[in-house]
Structures are given as C-alpha cells and as structure tokens.
Write a structure and sequence with these properties.
Chain lengths: 334, 295
C-alpha cells in the first residue's frame, strides 16, 4: 500500500476498533470507564479550540458544562422537552455567555485571562448554589436536580444499558475531531495560531485576532455545553459542585497539556493516558492511598512540561509516521 | 451600628492576614511574571510545619517563627531551583510562560495530595494553645488577640519586604530583574538566582502567615485551596506585583466578608467578591493600587 492510503486508512481502522469495542467489553464498570474516557476526550477537544489554538489558558470551562447540564435537565424535567432539543438550547446559551466573557477577557495577558476564567466559573457556581428559582425554572440551589430513570428511549436520551451512551459520545467525539481538523486547516485556524503566538505581528498583518478568538470561544463553549447534557443524562443527577467544579476545569486543561494542546490528536491521547491512571488508582488504591492519582497527575504534568513542552503527541506522532513509513510500499528512505 | 463597627474591625484584622498570605504571591509574580498556583499549597505546608514545630517542641506558637520561616525559605528556594527553573530555561524568550503556570499547578496537586497521604484528611488544632479564644476588650469592642497579632505581623512583614526591596543591594537586584531581565543580566545579575531568592522570600512570607494562622485556624490538607483563590483575588485587586497593594487588597476582602453577611446570606458575600474581582479585572486590570512596575 502507498503511504497515502495507509494514512487515510489508519484513522478509519481506529474508528472501526472503537465501534467494535463494546462487543468485547462485558462489564458495566469497564463500559462506564470507557464512556467517561470518551467524555473527557470530547471535553478536552472542545477546550482545545480555545486553549490550544488561540494560545490562552481558560480554566473555567466547567461553567459551560454546567449551563448545558442545567438547561437541558430543567427543560426536560419541567416542560417535557427532549434533552436533544435542550442540548441545543443549552449550547446556544453557553455560546452567548462564552462570547460575553470573551469580549473583555481576550484583551488580557496570559495570567489575567486564566484568573478571570477561574473567577467567572467559581462565581457562577456560588450563584447557582444560592439560587432556588429563576422565574419559573427551579434550580434547587446546592441540592441540584435529579432525573428519574423513567421511560427509556432515544427521544428521552435515557437508556437502561451503557452501550447507547458509548455510541452517542463516540459520535460526538468524532464530529468534534473532524471539526477541529477542518478548523486547523482553515483560515480561522491560521488566524488563531498566528494570534496565539505573536498577537502584535498578526494584527500588523491585518488579522482580526480578537474576532478569531471570539469565534473559537463561541464554538468551544457551545460544544462544551453539549457534553453537559450528556453528563446529566448519563449520571441522572447534577448539582453545582459536580458540574461546575474547578477540579473538572483543571483536569480538562491538564489532559490537553499533557496530550499536547493545539494538536488534533493531543487531547484524545491525553485522555487515553490519564483517565485509566485516575480510574484504576481509584479502584485499587482509593481506600489506602487517597489522592494517589492526583499525585501521579502532578508528576506526569511536571515531567511532560519539562521534557516535552509540546505534549506527548509530538513523540507519538513521530512514532506514527515512522510506522507508516515502514509499512508503506513507497518508502521515503531507500 | 456598633456591631457593624466591630465586624468591620475584625474584618480588617482578618483581611490583613489574608494580605500577608497573599504577599508572597504578589512578590513572586512581580519578579517571575508567573502566577504561582502552588501558593496556597505552600501556605498549607507552612501551616503543617508550624503545627508540628509547636506541637513537638511545646514552644509558644509565635516562637515557632524562627524555625518555620527559614525552613520555608529553603523549601521555596529549592522548589524554584529544581522544579521550575528548567522550564524557564526552556522558554527563555517568552515573557509570561504559560507552561510555568501549569507546572506550579502540578506542584499544587502533588503537595496537597502528598499531605493527604501522609497526615490524613483530619482537621488538626493546636493543643495547649495559650492564644485559643483569647479576646481583648477595648471599651465595647471584643477583638481576637491572635488576629491582632496577625495584623501586626502583616504590617511588619509588608514593611520589611518593602524596605528590603528598596534599600538593600539584593533588593535592588530583584527589582532590576523584575523590570527587565535581559538588562539586569547584562549588569551582571544572575537572573535565575534572583528567581530562587524571590521564590524563597515569597514562601517565607507564607510561613509568617501560617504561624499567625495556626493558633486560630484548623490545619488540614486542603486548607491551602481556601486561601488560594482568595490570594489570587487579593493580588489582582491590589495590583499584581504591588507589595502594599496585597495588604490593602486583603483588607478589602476581609471587610466584604465581615460586613456583607449583615445585609444578605453569607454565601452571597462570596459571589460579591468574585463579582468585584471581575469588575476590577475588566475596568482596571493593573489593580486598584498598582501602577505598572511600581517597585
């Protein structure tokens, strides 16, 4: 096979593998771990649109997740509106909020931007915890909302088995990955890249850096909110500390940075690497060594930032190209 | 009215201790141009060091200063030298290296969870504490004695750091590095050594804050997180890098926390703090009292 066919076939093979995986996995626990892994890969890929391509460090993305989760849950619980529709409504709401946040914050330098996003998300959480009702919509303050597991079906995005959730989040991930690949090759991607590396130079070339960043923020917050609905339907219970948590915001950024921010495969690689560490250390050492997985996270983070600042995708991409090169019939090196 | 005045005074006292806790953060930012996300964890480590020093030696809590402060200085100095410096060297040309922020976050996770592993999640309070619940009556006011001492420590430490930066040669070298690393290097200042020093001093001031906190504040592995975000807010309010601003920013936060609950649910006071923070960021990002590079 030629290099081109191989490079085209590799992602398809990976996708086929992902599609077939539930057939091999029988245990519901492992199924859940896989779903959460894909969920984090999706969240991080959405984050990457701003945090990776636009060269800033947002640390409050869980606020958008919360907007998505609360919107669709309130609409379905109190008005019987399908979560699929609520998902879109939540996404649009989060997009509006994201743009409103982006307008003043994108002017700030690195550290200030990170702090502003943290303060926004934390302030938002405190507000949700303090509000029982906004007009006709009940938020239930710190108690949160519970989705009764009644009436399963695709329309209600509620399933007795884990498999449908797996396929939903897999499709979402594939779509957001394709979108990322498309953007990274589009004008917007180049604008973002240029604006992230050298904002002054980019502006001197006539690029509207602020607008490019705002578009990225709008897409990122929209996509993150969709995952919020998925989270609510999967866990059937949301409360402010679970969906709008600082830990979650940080974990998304960690996964992206370890995997390699600004690359397409980086966030997925990061999730594939870190989620199992977290899940298995919690399963095996949760009682005896609490917090072990966070220590491992911290150590990996420092090592990666010191020795491979562009993330683990870089050596892995090199390996991937090497393998493709070996397998292809028209090898570059004689 | 009298209650509000009493709350206000207690708010100022507590706020000055917040300011003391944030002093190191603003110093480190001023020199390294990096938000040290591990600052709360360094405060937490200092509190554990103070707690064990006092408990094991039986000294008066404030005497522990002579042990805690040097330990924390050395800790901060080598943390910067061993963990953070390599990343600075890798990203020489970036003015505000994001990767360094990330690495301090890694340090935060490691320190907090290592403490959890070693000492467990339980809350610890000083036994045989001569300062516990001690109150000073001035006319109609009841003031907490350990917080009064904390106020004094905050003012003195801020003054000491300010004078050190203004009057000593090392202080001038630190200020020069903060203004322009390249130019300072050309004058024969070893910038990385200055970074180590600034990090050490910043951590040592967290040590002072910890010693004043331990007599009336519980010690537990996540205590740093409570102060972490508060410290970020304080230093931005006061102006990142402004030494006096940290104290004033801390007092503002202390006042809001003590007075706002008189008028609304206490939990809303927290939301007000975040709102004020965002407002200052948007309107006057240099901070309420900070002028760019004012030291």
């Amino acid at each position: 096979m030629t290099r081109k066919t191989l490079e085209r076939c590799a992602p398809l093979a990976l996708l086929a593998l992902a599609l077939a995986l539930p057939l091999a996995v029988q245990s519901a626990t492992y199924m859940h771990i896989l779903i959460v892994l894909l969920f984090y890969a999706y969240l991080t890929t959405s984050w990457n649109l701003v945090g990776g391509f636009a060269g800033v460090l947002p640390l409050g993305h869980s606020a958008f997740l919360g907007i998505g989760a609360y919107t669709s849950t309130i609409l379905s619980l109190q008005y019987g509106i399908s979560p699929w529709l609520g998902m879109i409504v939540g996404g649009v709401l989060a997009m509006i909020v994201g743009v409103l946040i982006g307008l003043p914050t994108f002017k700030m330098r690195g550290a200030y931007f990170a702090l502003a996003t943290i303060a926004f998300a934390e302030g938002f959480r405190v507000m949700v915890e303090n509000i029982d009702k906004i007009g006709p919509f009940a938020l239930n303050g710190p108690r949160g909302l519970q989705i009764p597991p009644l009436g399963f079906g695709l329309g209600k995005m509620l399933f007795a088995d884990k498999e449908p959730y797996y396929y939903i989040i897999l499709v979402m991930l594939v779509v957001v990955l394709m979108l990322t690949a498309f953007i990274s090759r589009s004008k917007l991607g180049y604008y973002l890249n240029a604006g992230g590396e050298e904002p002054e130079a980019a502006m001197a070339l006539g690029i509207n850096v602020a607008r490019a960043k705002l578009i990225a923020m709008a897409m990122s917050s929209f996509l993150t909110a969709l995952a919020g609905t998925f989270y609510a339907q999967l866990n059937l219970y949301i409360h402010p500390k679970s969906v709008i948590s600082l830990d979650l915001s940080f974990e998304i950024a960690f996964i992206a940075l370890i995997g390699g921010r600004g690359s397409i495969a980086g966030p997925v690689l990061g999730a594939m690497l870190l989620r199992p560490v977290s899940d298995f250390s919690r399963i095996y050492f949760g009682d005896t060594l609490p917090g072990l997985h966070l220590i491992i996270f911290g150590v990996i983070l420092i090592l990666v930032m010191t020795f491979q600042p562009r993330g683990l995708q870089e050596p892995l991409t090199r390996l991937y190209h090497w393998v493709i090169d070996r397998l292809s019939s028209d090898r570059r090196t004689a | 009215m009298l209650y509000i005045l009493e709350d206000a005074i207690n708010g100022i006292l507590m706020g000055s201790i917040y300011g003391l806790a944030a002093l190191g953060l603003t110093l480190i930012f001023g020199v390294l141009k990096v938000i040290n996300f591990a600052h709360g964890s360094l405060l937490m480590v200092s509190m554990y060091v103070a707690y064990w020093t006092i408990t094991l030696s039986g000294l008066h809590p404030y005497v522990a200063l002579v042990i805690v402060v040097p330990i924390m200085f050395v800790f901060g100095y080598f943390l910067q030298d061993i963990v953070i410096k390599p990343i600075f060297k890798a990203e020489k040309n970036v003015r505000e290296p994001i990767t360094v922020i990330i690495v301090t976050t890694g340090v935060w996770y490691i320190l907090d969870n290592l403490t959890l592993l070693i000492f467990g999640p339980q809350y610890r309070t000083l036994q045989d504490n001569p300062l516990r619940g001690k109150m000073l009556e001035i006319g109609e006011f009841m003031l907490s004695v350990p917080k009064l001492w904390g106020f004094g420590a905050a003012v003195l430490t801020t003054l000491a750091v300010y004078l050190f930066l203004q009057k000593t040669d090392t202080g001038r070298a630190i200020r020069a590095t903060s203004l322009d690393r390249e130019a300072a290097s050309l004058m024969g200042i070893n910038a990385y050594k200055i970074y180590n020093l600034a990090f050490g001093i910043g951590t040592a001031t967290a040590g002072v804050a910890a010693v004043t906190l331990v007599p009336f504040n519980n010690v537990f592995p996540t205590v740093g997180v409570l102060f972490d975000i508060k410290c970020f807010i304080i230093v931005v309010l006061g102006g990142l890098g402004s030494i006096g601003g940290a104290l004033l920013g801390g007092i503002i936060i202390g006042l809001i926390e003590s007075i706002a609950p008189q008028f609304m649910a206490a939990t809303w006071a927290e939301a007000i703090v975040y709102g004020l923070f965002l407002l200052v960021l948007f309107v006057k990002p240099a901070g309420l009292f900070g002028v760019k590079n004012d030291w």
